[in-house]
Structures are given as C-alpha cells and as structure tokens.
C-alpha cells in the first residue's frame, strides 16, 4: 500500500519533468527555426553526415583507383566530357566525385576530433582558472594570451613542424590553437556563476570543490560553449584544409579536400574542375556549420530571444 502511494506521489514529478524537457526542446526549435539560414545549414550538415557515412556505397569509383586513360577528363555533363566521371578526373586519373565523397569522412572526423579535444581540455583548464583564481588563474591566462598572440595558422604550422607532418599531428596542433577560446569562455562563465545563491547554498551544504565546479557550476555554462564548439568545428575543417594545402596535414593519396587542392594547384588554368569542386566542398561545409552556429546562438542566448 505504501509503495502504491509513493508511486502515485512520484508520478506527477516524472510527468512534469518530461513535459518540461519537451517544452524546452520545443522552445529551442522555435528560436532556432526562426533563423532560416540556420535551418538550411542544419539540413546541409545532415546531408554531409549521410554522405560521409554511406560514401562506400554512394561513390561510383574507388577514391584511390587511377584511370591512366582518363587523366584530367572534364566533367561528363559539359561539352567535351566523356565517360562515367560526373565531376571529371584529377591529374593522375582518379575520380573527383568519389574523392569528394570520401573527403567528407575526413572533414567530419577532423571536426569531431579537434572540437572534442580542444573543448574538453579547454573547459577543464578554464573551470579551474575561474574557480580558484589567484596565481593559478594568472599563470593559465598568461599562457593562453601567449598562444592567442600568434596567428592561428602560423602557430599550427610551427607545431606541425615540431611534431612532424601528418593528419594526426595536424589535428593535435589545431586543437591546441583553438583551446584558448574555450579556456577564456569557460573562465568568464564560471566567474559569473560562482557568486550566485545556488552555488553558495551548495557550498554551505557541504559540496566539495570538484562537485561545485563540475556538477553545480559547469552545467549552467554550457550554452556559450556549445556555440563556440560549433564555430570551432568549422575552423578545424578550414585549418586542416590549409595545412593539407601546404603539405603539412593529410598526406597524399588521402582524399582530404585541402590535399586535393594542393595536388591540383599547378593545373588551375588547364583544368578548372580539379580545384573548383574541392574548394566548393570546403566553402559549403564551413558556411553550413557557421549558419548552424548562428542559429544555436539565437536559440541558447537569452539576450538574443525576442519576447
């Protein structure tokens, strides 16, 4: 009997919590969908994810197979085009469309890896700096200021030169370059939340510093970090493409978009398609993610919401 009464007493709380979550999700989508560009960016990004996941089934050719009798063929849909290569072939006869589809896998992996590494390490450092302040904060922030004093691409090049060329080292270098943005943002948010009543109440209740930092304060600082993470995702793709173009990122024959541009730069005047399509892929992907970031800012920032 007592268990039945407890179930009855607890059921409204469960229902209200689920209803509250649905209401929050509905409100988020309302503000996000008001930004038409963000919705378009979301659908383009989802299409990119689908293309990356199903690239082995969608791609008409292997991204590494070379057709020696089809070198620098123009796209099949323009005058003079022939064969089954819809977007033409590159200087060694590889199908450009297939390499672009597989390149989406590289771009998504780079974005996820770099954003996860820079966000997790940046949040960890920023929480300690904002909570403890004092000499800990001073040392951490001066180190971040030194990193921010260098142009991001130049610093990434220096780090890759030290670590050695390659996709993995390039991603680590880009993550280190993007990390200070998360550190500064987290520190500012923690400093703002640290003095609020709910934090003081948790401290008086006996919560440990780690619990205060990561269970009490950090969840209330996530909105700006999510927006910054989205923008860092696009920056990671851009910087990785730049490193690949300079020969310091992904190495041939990897179908990474920046590397494809590097391999085709001496054929710009002879075969416009070998540089146009990888460049458009980078442009569309980065633009879609940035539009999503704008929509997330509108939906998560209370100051951007209109009554």
From TrEMBL:
<keyword id="KW-0812">Transmembrane</keyword>
<dbReference type="GO" id="GO:0071916">
    <property type="term" value="F:dipeptide transmembrane transporter activity"/>
</dbReference>
<keyword id="KW-0653">Protein transport</keyword>
<keyword id="KW-0571">Peptide transport</keyword>
<dbReference type="InterPro" id="IPR025966">
    <property type="entry name" value="OppC_N"/>
</dbReference>
<keyword id="KW-0472">Membrane</keyword>
<feature type="transmembrane region" description="Helical">
    <location>
        <begin position="108"/>
        <end position="132"/>
    </location>
</feature>
<dbReference type="Pfam" id="PF12911">
    <property type="entry name" value="OppC_N"/>
</dbReference>
<dbReference type="GO" id="GO:0015031">
    <property type="term" value="P:protein transport"/>
</dbReference>
<feature type="transmembrane region" description="Helical">
    <location>
        <begin position="267"/>
        <end position="289"/>
    </location>
</feature>
<feature type="transmembrane region" description="Helical">
    <location>
        <begin position="152"/>
        <end position="178"/>
    </location>
</feature>
<keyword id="KW-1003">Cell membrane</keyword>
<dbReference type="GO" id="GO:0005886">
    <property type="term" value="C:plasma membrane"/>
</dbReference>
<feature type="transmembrane region" description="Helical">
    <location>
        <begin position="38"/>
        <end position="59"/>
    </location>
</feature>
<protein>
    <submittedName>
        <fullName>ABC transporter permease subunit</fullName>
    </submittedName>
</protein>
<dbReference type="InterPro" id="IPR050366">
    <property type="entry name" value="BP-dependent_transpt_permease"/>
</dbReference>
<keyword id="KW-1133">Transmembrane helix</keyword>
<comment type="similarity">
    <text>Belongs to the binding-protein-dependent transport system permease family.</text>
</comment>
<feature type="transmembrane region" description="Helical">
    <location>
        <begin position="221"/>
        <end position="247"/>
    </location>
</feature>
<keyword id="KW-0813">Transport</keyword>
<dbReference type="InterPro" id="IPR000515">
    <property type="entry name" value="MetI-like"/>
</dbReference>
<dbReference type="InterPro" id="IPR035906">
    <property type="entry name" value="MetI-like_sf"/>
</dbReference>
<dbReference type="Pfam" id="PF00528">
    <property type="entry name" value="BPD_transp_1"/>
</dbReference>
<feature type="domain" description="ABC transmembrane type-1">
    <location>
        <begin position="104"/>
        <end position="293"/>
    </location>
</feature>
